Write a sequence for this structure.
């Protein structure tokens, strides 16, 4: 059996505060295989980005990994020293941030920023790094890369800058890419191009992708599997068709009901009553039970860990039946 | 860009003309120089002759233009007190002040930026907190007090460093320098610390707050996510982005170092233009005062111009805008 590129096992993140310990990520587990795109969805504050930051080792203090393991190509990376972790970042894990307008240093040319990354991770000289930088820009579809390499970020449009950011994240050929809402800040017309680009490059390189988003459309179009997070926990994970088509967890079901789809016609969208609880005030048992239409007494006391259900896993005592 | 420079030079000229007017007004309004120069034993004929000789009987505007014309050629007239050309006196005194200002300016910029970066990176470290607390002393204690305290400690109690004067100087092509002798270098230490301490702490606190701001930016996060070494992230990515405001303040402060050398020079009896100016005030030596005023304003205007040009060197966005 192939080792997954990324294996997250019961990963927890905690933030000590004056009012007690918060757990923005609680016992999250999943694998991503070579060439696979895992979509991670959830509301703001559900722990999506926090999980991504924990994997790449960029948690802002005082947040810290409090339990579980992160393995990259079979090697544990959650217990590396900062110096060792730095060599993993960029080289083995590439990260794409949400806002391309602020992700690039305004005072350095994109060629400088590409070259410094390449020189840091690959044993190449200045001229070779520059050659590779031009190739990387070519690959992400920057027209006339040779002439544009000495331009500054502000000379590019938003979509072009996100291409540059992707080139930067990929220039040392990492095996895992974490894309944290890569299209949220972009024009709708540009979003599709950037998603297509990300998808193409990952297929070509066989890289694994963790795609964090709250856009169900992006997930449906791009991801192979999807993980749904709620209040720091994994609610459900499985192949896109199953999770979106026949969700098991009532939360996923509610999310799908609230997603506008052309096939549903012009009916009123269903909504989930209430709001996601704050991390400091999580209810006992399943975090979703106060809003859940199927909740019973058991849900109020015992949270259910995710259990295998068909091709996926869901964390629910009373999963939805196939419609 | 050329247009920008021309515009700035034009503005600078206007500023200098106005300062020139103020400097010139001193001659007209701070007493009658003829009275000062001739003393009590004089005849009306002497007064009239000198008045005509100095051109003081001509209309205001003519005198002003003449003053400007002379000033532009470096001719500020004759010192009332010393009876020698002001330009010569200034030329003798300038090296002392410029060397002092250069040393304390360099010290302030290098140490200020270095400690600013350090305290920003090690934000919660013990050393940072100690430096930050001490820096309050630098910002709040008046210059003369710092000077006197340093003299007391290092000259009186420890007897390590001279308490006044420049030490031995060497003439290098008309420029008297204290850099080449041991006593000259020793004499520079206390005055330059006194003069630069305020600027050093100011620059340090500014660099620190700018760094903290920049370190929160997405591009710093992205630089870390790309696995760049901390050194590169801190200095190449973060520090450079803090420089525009830092250079603005530093530029103005370098101007003040020269202008406010007056106090330090008085405390340490440093034979520079500041001390010359203080003495000139005591004796109402107006040509010297006017020349000093013009000199300082030329310096400020020049520094501002240099600062504006440095913006272009640092921020590519300005270069592009300037092209249109």
């Amino acid at each position: 059996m192939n080792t997954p590129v990324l294996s997250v096992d019961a990963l927890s993140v905690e933030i000590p505060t004056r009012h007690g310990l918060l757990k923005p990520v609680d016992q999250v587990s999943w694998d991503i295989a070579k060439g696979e795109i895992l979509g991670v969805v959830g509301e703001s504050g559900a722990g999506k980005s926090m999980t991504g930051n924990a994997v790449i080792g960029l948690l802002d203090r005082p947040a810290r990994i409090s339990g579980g393991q992160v393995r990259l190509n079979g090697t544990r990376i959650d217990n590396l020293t900062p110096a060792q972790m730095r060599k993993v970042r960029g080289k083995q894990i590439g990260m794409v941030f949400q806002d391309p307008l602020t992700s690039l240093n305004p005072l350095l040319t994109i060629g400088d920023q590409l070259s410094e990354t390449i020189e840091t991770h690959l044993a190449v000289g200045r001229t070779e790094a520059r050659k590779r930088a031009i190739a990387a820009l070519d690959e992400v579809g920057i027209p006339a890369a040779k002439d544009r390499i000495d331009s500054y970020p502000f000379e590019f449009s938003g979509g072009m800058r996100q291409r540059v950011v992707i080139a930067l994240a990929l220039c040392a050929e990492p095996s895992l890419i974490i894309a944290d809402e890569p299209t949220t800040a972009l024009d709708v017309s540009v979003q599709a191009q950037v998603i297509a680009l990300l998808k193409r490059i990952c297929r070509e390189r066989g890289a694994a992708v963790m795609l964090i988003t709250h856009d169900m459309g992006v997930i449906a179009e791009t991801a192979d599997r999807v993980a749904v997070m709620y209040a720091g926990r994994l609610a459900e994970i499985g192949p896109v068709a199953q999770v979106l088509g026949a969700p098991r967890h009532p939360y996923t079901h509610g999310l799908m009901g609230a997603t506008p789809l052309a096939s549903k016609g012009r009916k009123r969208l269903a909504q989930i009553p209430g709001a996601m609880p704050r991390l400091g005030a999580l209810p006992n048992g399943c975090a979703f039970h106060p809003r859940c239409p199927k909740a019973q007494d058991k849900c109020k006391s015992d949270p259910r860990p995710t259990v295998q259900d068909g091709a996926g896993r869901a964390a629910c005592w009373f999963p939805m039946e196939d419609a | 860009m050329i247009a920008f420079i021309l515009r700035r030079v034009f503005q600078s000229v206007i500023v200098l003309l106005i300062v020139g007017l103020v400097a010139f007004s001193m001659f007209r309004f701070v007493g009658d120089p003829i009275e000062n120069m001739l003393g009590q034993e004089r005849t009306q004929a002497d007064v009239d002759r000198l008045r005509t000789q100095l051109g003081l009987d001509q209309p205001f505007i003519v005198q002003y233009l003449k003053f400007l014309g002379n000033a532009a050629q470096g001719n500020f007239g004759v010192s009332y007190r010393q009876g020698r050309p002001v330009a010569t006196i200034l030329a003798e005194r300038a090296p002392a002040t410029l060397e002092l200002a250069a040393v304390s300016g360099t010290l302030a910029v290098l140490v200020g930026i270095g400690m600013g970066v350090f305290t920003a990176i090690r934000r919660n470290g013990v050393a940072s907190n100690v430096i930050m607390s001490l820096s309050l002393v630098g910002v709040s204690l008046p210059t003369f007090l710092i000077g006197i305290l340093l003299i007391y400690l290092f000259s009186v109690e420890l007897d390590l460093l001279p308490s006044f004067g420049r030490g031995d100087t060497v003439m290098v092509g008309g420029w008297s320098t204290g850099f080449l002798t041991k006593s000259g270098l020793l004499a520079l230490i206390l005055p330059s610390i006194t003069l630069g301490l305020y600027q050093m702490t100011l620059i340090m606190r500014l660099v620190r707050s700018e760094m903290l701001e920049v370190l929160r930016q997405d591009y710093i996060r992205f630089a870390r996510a790309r696995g760049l070494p901390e050194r590169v992230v801190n200095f190449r990515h973060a520090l450079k982005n803090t420089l525009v405001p830092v250079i603005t303040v530093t530029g103005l402060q370098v101007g003040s170092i020269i202008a406010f050398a007056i106090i330090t020079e008085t405390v340490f009896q440093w034979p520079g233009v500041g001390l010359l100016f203080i003495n000139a005030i005591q004796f109402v030596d107006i040509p010297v005062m006017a020349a000093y005023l013009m000199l300082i304003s030329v310096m400020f205007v020049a520094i501002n111009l240099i600062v504006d040009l440095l913006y272009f060197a640092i921020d590519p966005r300005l270069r592009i805008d300037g092209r249109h």
User: Anything to note?
Assistant: The radius of gyration of chain A is 20 Å. The longest strand of chain A covers residues 20-32. DSSP finds twelve helices and twelve strands in chain A.
